[in-house]
Amino acid sequence: MSSDPLVMILLGAPGAGKGTYCKELIAKYGTPQISTGDMFRAAVKEGRQVGLSAKAYMDEGQLVPDDVVIGVVRDRIKADDCKAGFILDGFPRTVGQADALVGLLAERQLRLAVVVSLDVERKIILQRLTGRRMCRSCKQGNFNIYTMPSKKEGVCDYCGGELYQRDDDQEAVILNRLKVYEEQTQPLIDYYRQLGMLESLPFEGDVASMTTKLFRLIDQRAAKR
Questions:
Q1: Mean of pLDDT values over 140-164
Q2: pLDDT (tens digit, 9 = 90+) per residue, 11-69?
Q3: What digits encode the pLDDT tens for the residues 75-121?
Q4: What angle do CA 30, 7, 206 make, to 5 degrees?
Q5: Is 133 assigned a catalytic role?
Q6: Is 74 a catalytic residue?
Q7: Residue in 93, 128, 133, 221 annotated catalytic
């Protein structure tokens, strides 16, 4: 396998499981996950202007403007932990952002290894997101009222804190997020397919089997560089 920094992108609709698979990728490859959604939510919590500006768009299920997202990603990949590569989760989301990424990587003398598209049926995504509940206190609890409920309704198993539903997990917002994804982000599939960098991974089986398939795809791509 090449020793070059391993830069990869995970594409997929909201709720496709990008965050889950990123944890597995981090454990195997030792590269950080760069999630624009997480960075914006952290900025909101800290009261930073970039977060407050992004929140208005996120709460409506809209994409944050390209210039804001690109600036945040540019700053993040300058960090020392990105020297060996990184996993992009939630970026790029538009062809404009994909074009900008070429320049961002060139600035750091990096190149993209692989783009994996996680393909999940809409009904599964709706169940995952509308059922998701987060803990206000410990932030460790990540439950689902349909598939992974807490032992006591509304209460975190880990710390006893209150479980809540994120504003962007409301069904109306989710449906709009999916519409936005299909209209504005789906063209990325064609973009990376034309570059010969796209690997599609349909959701079949459980997380463990999907993770094994994902590792295989990435290792094959990395070995060819």
A1: 91
A2: 988 889 888 899 999 999 999 999 887 888 877 888 877 777 788 787 777 778 888 88
A3: 889 889 998 899 999 899 889 999 999 999 999 999 999 999 999 99
A4: 65
A5: no
A6: no
A7: 93
CA-angle at 206, arms to 88 and 161, nearest 5°: 75
Instruction: Determine whether 216 is an active site residue.
Output: no
Contact 8, 218 (CB under 8 A): yes
**CATH number of the domain located at residue range(s) 6-120+184-224 in this protein:** 3.40.50.300
Q: Is position 41 annotated as part of the catalytic site?
A: no
User: Of 41, 55, 74, 166, which one is the catalytic site residue?
Assistant: 166
Task: Let me know if 18 is a catalytic residue.
Answer: yes
Given the residues 76, 128, 133, 177, select the one marked as catalytic: 177
| Extents of the domains making up the chain | 6-120+184-224
pTM of the shown model: 0.80
